[in-house]
Amino acid sequence: MTQQKTIPGYTYGTGEAARSPVTLAELARLKESVLFGPADEAALRQAGTVLADQVEDVLDVWYGFVLAHPFLVAYFSTPDGQLIDDYQRRVRARFGQWILDTCNRPYDQAWLDYAEEIGLRHTAAKKNTTDDAPSVPLINLRYLIAFIVPITVTIRPFLARKGHGPDEVEAMYQAWFKAVTLQAALWSRPYTAGDAW
């Protein structure tokens, strides 16, 4: 399952997405670094089936977490602290599609390019430009990394809702954790200079 509807600012697989400077060989090494292999790919496909009709519920949990923390809400707000509802809604729609892409897309050049695009959209280079939002100029890298935890630990109950056994749920959960960590590593690339990444 891929894109279900037109999502504003969703440019996966188009010329509008950035071109990643990360090579497929580097991606392969990064996958090895997070212990991501064929069994994880299969578990993610299964997770995609399990999560397909739960995306909005997952987003409710994640956005509930964000909205409960003013220092995170600031990234969807004007510099003087006013929440920009339309901006938050547009990002939410892309975040929902990201769940499906994480589970269902092949981790190929188009996927790698869109990971670069997502990373850029968190930095001063591209934050706000996709949605023409009058928000703060970047999302600090520390929260991009820290957010691995809430978007991982909160997914397990959703993976367990369709009657799969504990071993299957654990396999999906571990695959999700590895995929999220892999992507956070890729999203961090635009924050670094030269060979530091």
Question: Counting H and I runs of at least 4 residues, what is the number of helices?
Answer: 10
**Structural class, please?**
mainly alpha
* Parts with pLDDT < 50 across at least 5 consecutive residues: none
> What level of helicity do the residues show?
55-70%
How many distinct beta strands? Answer: 0
Radius of gyration: 16 Å
Mean pLDDT: 96
Ends distance: 32 Å
3D shape: globular
What percent of residues are in strands?
under 5%
- SSE string, helices as H and strands as E: HHHHHHHHHH
Largest sheet: none
How would you describe this structure to a colleague?
With 197 residues, this protein is an all-alpha fold. Helix content is 56%, strand content 0%. The chain has helices at residues 24-33, 38-51, 55-67, 70-73, 85-104, 109-120, 141-146, 148-153, 156-159, 166-187. It is globular, with a radius of gyration of 16 Å. It starts with 23 loop residues before the first helix and ends in a 10-residue tail after the last helix. The model has no long low-confidence stretch (mean pLDDT 96).
